[in-house]
Amino acid sequence: MRAVHFGAGNIGRGFIGLLLSRAGYEVCFVDVNASLVDLLRERGQYTVTLANAQADAELVRNVTAVNGTNLEQVAEAIAGADLVTTAVGVSVLKHIAPSIAQGIRVRLRASAAPLPVIACENAIGGSTQLKEQVYAHLTPEDRVLADGLVAFPDAAVDRIVPLQHHEDPLQVTVEPFYEWVVDRSAMPSGFQEIAGVHYVEKLEPYIERKLFTVNTGHCCAAYHGYLAGCSTIQEAMSSEAIRAEVASVLQETGAMLVRKFGFDAKEHETYAAKIMDRFTNPYIDDEVVRVGRSPIRKLSPNDRLVRPALLAHELGMEVPHLAAGMAAALLFDYPEDPEAAAIQALIAEHGIHHAIETYTGLPGEHPIHQNVYNRYETLKLTVKR
Ligand SMILES: NC(=O)C1=CN([C@@H]2O[C@H](COP(=O)(O)OP(=O)(O)OC[C@H]3O[C@@H](n4cnc5c(N)ncnc54)[C@H](O)[C@@H]3O)[C@@H](O)[C@H]2O)C=CC1
Ligand SMILES: O=P(O)(O)OC[C@H]1O[C@](O)(CO)[C@@H](O)[C@@H]1O
Known about the structure:
CATH superfamily of the largest domain: NAD(P)-binding Rossmann-like Domain
Number of strands: 12
CATH topology of the largest domain: Rossmann fold
Bound molecules: 1,4-dihydronicotinamide adenine dinucleotide, 6-O-phosphono-beta-D-fructofuranose
Radius of gyration: 21 Å
CATH architecture of the largest domain: 3-Layer(aba) Sandwich
Number of domains: 2
CATH class of the largest domain: Alpha Beta
Structural class: alpha/beta
């Protein structure tokens, strides 16, 4: 079995590539980082180390790579694949869509076998978004053919993989926990299930629970940690005030999730507590600027801060801590992150109300907008850098 995986980065190598290889796939990574591609081709294997006391290691074999700029080779790989996956970042999906479309065009004429394409990104409906972008590059005739053969099941992926600092550029250290959930209802019939993947009939509760607990809590720890002068999530979580703030955020999203999906409140509490422990894993040094990266994406209406706040608001719940998380994101003045720099430039030019409205979509008269503004003004006075 052959899989083509876009993005040989932290999640690509440390999670998706590892699971696919374990499940018996030959994994062909597609990446635009030429040195990474050359090394993967040359060695055909790499090591994944667990962030635990024993530093358990596993050799991932049977891998190769092609450069994403070589459209012909990418198309050829897709034409012969049983599965396509991605972990490039949701904003990069539009850049890989043309080559996936070209691969699908070749494949539609070469094989009648069904092809699942699964985006493993931190987003609601990642594969659905990818499908729209890929279909924009197909003719109406090819779209009809693709409707019959190519499926885009949405997925939720959960494993913390920090930035890597190893002598060996292919080695990747990952937290022990992982969960890959895929919408079975969108998988092509007869597809052989991938070992290690949890298939569900309805993905929404899983993706929202994961995004609004792991990712909401994590980015709040990152933004508050950054403002307090911390460099890692572990350092931020060792501050009682930040830990309490993150726990309060998770109480707000948890109350909403329990109401919306009917989760058992006690079980959800256990789920959230486990996530708090994952944030404090002492064998990981996870930089706050990685976890807080791309604040415009994270502040967008369908992402981890605004969406759970709006869902809670619709249910009549107050969200002061989510509002504080949004305010902290707006204060994430990290010049090396282009989105953070753009936020600061917009605030400087047009003011904070304009920025809240632009990035969160919350109009000035919305109570959450007012709450974010109030928190922003208070938090601004506490910034330690
Ligand atoms: N790191 C983590 O703990 C987790 C990350 N994710 C999600 O996984 C995705 C990837 O994240 P990371 O692995 O952390 O990022 P990363 O930056 O380590 O990896 C992304 C890879 O994509 C490659 N890439 C960029 N543009 C490309 C293109 N046009 N064609 C092919 N490859 C391209 C990059 O060269 C890089 O190797 C993101 O959506 C992220 O939200 C999800 C769960 C956990
Ligand atoms: O990858 P993103 O969406 O920028 O956000 C980083 C998040 O992804 C994770 O790496 C894993 O879900 C978390 O560590 C963090 O919450």
